[in-house]
Amino acid sequence: MSIATPAPLRHDCTDTAPTSSGQAPPLIEFRNITHSYGGEALLEDVSISLAPGSFHFLTGPSGAGKTTVLRLCYGELTPTRGTVSVFGQTLGSLSRDTISLMRRRIGVVHQDCRFLDHLSVTENIALPLTVAGRDPDAHADELNELLAWVGLGGQAGDRPPSLSGGERQRAALARAVIMSPEMLLADEPTGNVDWEMSLRLLALLVELNRLGKTILIATHDLALIRAAKPQVSARVLRIAGRKLTLAGADL
Amino acid sequence: MSAQTAAPRLLSRRAEIARADRVVPSSGHTATLTGFAAFAMAFLAVFALALALAAGRLADRWEATLAQTATIRVSAPPEQMDVQVAAVLAILSTTPGIAEARLLSLEEQRALLAPWLGPDLPLEALPLPRLIEIRETPEGFDAEGLRMRLRAEAPGAVLDDHTRWRRPLVVAAERLRLMGWAALGLIGAAMAAMITLAAQAALAANAGVIAVLRLVGARDAWIARAFVRRFTLRALWGAGLGTLAGVGAVAALPPVAEAGAFLTGLSFSGLHWLAPLGVPPLAALVAFLATRIAAFAVLRRVS
Questions:
Q1: Which of the four, A48, A84, A217, B40, has the lowest number of CB atoms within 10 Å?
Q2: Which among B19, B211, B219 has the least Cβ separation from residue A130?
Q3: Do residues A40 and A80 touch, judged by C-beta distance below 8 A?
Q4: Shortest CB distance from B217 goes to which of A116, A131, A135?
Q5: pLDDT, tens digit, 9 for 90 and up, residues A222-248
Q6: What residue in B sits closest to A97 (Cα-Cα)?
Q7: CA of B303: which chain A residue's CA is closest?
Q8: What is the pLDDT of residues B2-60, one digit of tens each?
Q9: Is 3.20.20.70 the CATH classification of the domain at A28-248?
């Protein structure tokens, strides 16, 4: 486990076409995705393709389907129509266990963090290691490094309910990167924190991208997107009216 | 694998199991229910086992004892009685398969009739038949052949080889034994049902935990294992205590000399005292299978 492993930094993403020959295959690819809730379409004929090492913001009004797009990415939802491919594999054809194994290569920061409240902050962060059958004690140094990186060294033994909103988001980020995933998905990671903490979280995500991680952040916070401009070359995908469009090649 | 490498591996495995156990929070009421169910079922299982084994012993004993004995009843006028008895004894002495033939004395006949007619019975004044007790060799004798010879040479003699009333007794004991095993099976099934319900309740109560575990990459087998291990251990403990209590209760049954008839045999005998040792592992196996099936069924449903 290492979060400091450098990886080639690539910024090659598109909102529609599959990658052409000679380019690295996309990490995530949506092909003509339609997704409905209760018979009503939330997404209609959406196609996206995220290249390795890219940085994307996914924005749109509340209820537009940002969280749905993320959940489709890590296989928590199955699209009504169309196919989602992750790491070159079509999710619809994979077993539950294969999807679970695939999730070890994807770090996810959920909007509600999804902690196990009976475990300490450290145990929650080490949870992906535990379910993978690894010994967190053998990774104690890296865990401490990670806690220091997200500024939670002093809260290691605390229970999640005692953390503030910002602390919870940072702990969720630490858990998302503990397996050194190739891709990180974050759902409104700054939704419950003040501006200063938002910038701090953004800096952590930018740092991960510089290490070669593919980043997709769902947010309705346009100020955050603007704040990212000087730090990273990011693309903005916008969901509105059931469609997903590329809002701009740059910020 | 050498002992030096096996020990650290075992310790590492134990640590991994302990971590997995911590991840799934304990749900108090299901733990209590599982332990109690295993305790009660093991207690009852010990009694069912005792019943089955005792009935088996009883059937074997009746079968063996009655099969080796027979009686000849000689009814004749008083002046012919001694002649006929002598003729019967002579026939028996030349009949293959008969180890011993003994004429019951009047005192012995009086003792047999005493429960019905009282101890001061004047047997000499009554026209009672004389009884000859036969003990067979293990090979046995030809009952039909003996009857034919008796008809020809001692017409007042009737052979009773106990077949008429031995068979229903043995059948009854056999059925009792079957009932004991059936009761054991039902107890196992009831325990499996209770543990399945408890496991399902525990899984439902931990649906949120399961969702999080899946999101961070846990496979179904890993999630199921945490529940299966917990329920198996609870069942093992509960059944262990229930077995101890059951064996204690069986041991406290009245001894043979103090009670009569069938109940005197309702206990373990000899090596049969070791049989209850199988109850806790069996209960753990039932819990293991029930929880595993329930866990995978629930995990499939909530996918």
A1: B40
A2: B19
A3: no
A4: A131
A5: 899 999 988 888 899 999 888 888 886
A6: B219
A7: A96
A8: 555 666 665 666 676 777 777 887 766 777 888 898 999 999 999 999 988 888 887 77
A9: no
Task: State the pTM of this model.
Answer: 0.69
CA pair distance A159, A171, nearest whole angstrom: 11
Burial A132-160 (b: 16+ CB within 10 A, else e): bebebeebeebbeebbebbbbeebbeebb
CB spacing of A108 vs B16 below 8 angstroms: no
Q: Do residue A132 and residue B217 have CB atoms under 8 angstroms apart?
A: yes
Asked if residue A24 lies in contact with residue A51, where contact means CB atoms within 8 angstroms, the answer is yes
> Residue B117 has what pLDDT?
75
- Would you call A103 and B216 a contact, using CB atoms and an 8 Å cutoff? yes
Best mutation target, B215, B225, B303, to test chain A (most A CBs within 10 A): B215
Distance, first Cα to last Cα, chain B? 39
**CA angle centred on B113, ends B108 and B116, rounded to 5°:** 155
How far does B242 lie from chain A, in Å, by closest CA? 32
Q: Which of B19, B217, B221 sits opposite A128 (nearest CB)?
A: B217
Which residues in chain A are contacts of B215 at CB distance < 8 A?
74, 76, 103, 108, 110, 114
* CA-based nearest distance B229→chain A, Å: 15
Q: For tokens 């997404």, name the residue.
A: A43
How is the beta sheet containing B130-136 ordered, strand by strand? B98-103, B130-136, B69-74, B157-160
- Chain A nearest C-alpha distance from B211 (Å): 9
DSSP A26-76: PSEEEEEEEEEETTEEEEEEEEEEE-TT-EEEEE-STTSSHHHHHHHHTTS
Q: Locate the domains of chain B by residue range.
A: 12-56+176-301, 76-155
- Domain positions in chain A are 28-248
Q: Tell me the two tokens of residue A178.
A: 């503990």
The closest alpha carbon to A163, from A129, A193, A204, A201, belongs to: A193
Q: Which chain A residue's Cα is nearest to B220?
A: A97
* A179: closest CA of chain B, how far (Å): 10
B window 216-255, beta carbon within 8 A of A:
216-222
Contact A171, A124 (CB under 8 A): yes
Exposure letters A91-128 (e unless 16+ CB within 10 A, then b): beeeeeeebbebbbbbbbbbbebbbbeebbbbbbbbbb
Tokens encoding B135: 């003990």
Mean pLDDT by 10 residues, chain A (251 residues): 34 37 78 90 91 93 91 92 94 90 93 91 93 85 87 90 90 91 92 84 90 93 90 90 76 44
